[in-house]
Amino acid sequence: YPLCALAVSDERPVSTQSTWGDASYTALLWMMSRFVLYVLLVGALFYHVEPDTFDKYGDACWFTVVTMSTVGYGDYFPLTPAGRYINCFFMVIGTLVFGASFTHVIQFLIARRDKRKKKSGPDMILSAGSGLAARLRLPRHTGDR
Known about the structure:
The structure is a single chain. This protein is mainly alpha-helical and about 140 residues long. It contains three helices and three strands, in the order βαααββ. It has a three-stranded antiparallel beta sheet with strand order 1-2-3, with no helix packed on it. β2 (about 125-130) and β3 form a beta hairpin. It is elongated, with a radius of gyration of 25 Å.
């Protein structure tokens, strides 16, 4: 058994399915529509629970986005006890919705990048040793640029 072996392979060590999620525009559109629906519904709730705070529906939606993104400008805040309790609940839920939504956007972008890389062709892989050794990825030369 040789102590060191060198092999060049022409296949990618990546599976055919993306490990990062769905790369379809439909999935991205559904996620964005759920995000907008959440903002509109919670904004409507605050608009009705806090009529003295929010004279406009758009201000209530602004408050929802600012609260769920944990920015909290302080230009609007609930005044009634009911509004404060509801706000406490939606601070937690909104942060989860905000984080999950943007996680899906990042997953979409990574899956699109992976899909584009698969179309461009496989990379050359140089591996040394007996399977436990590190691999060095060499891009395939496609001509002069």
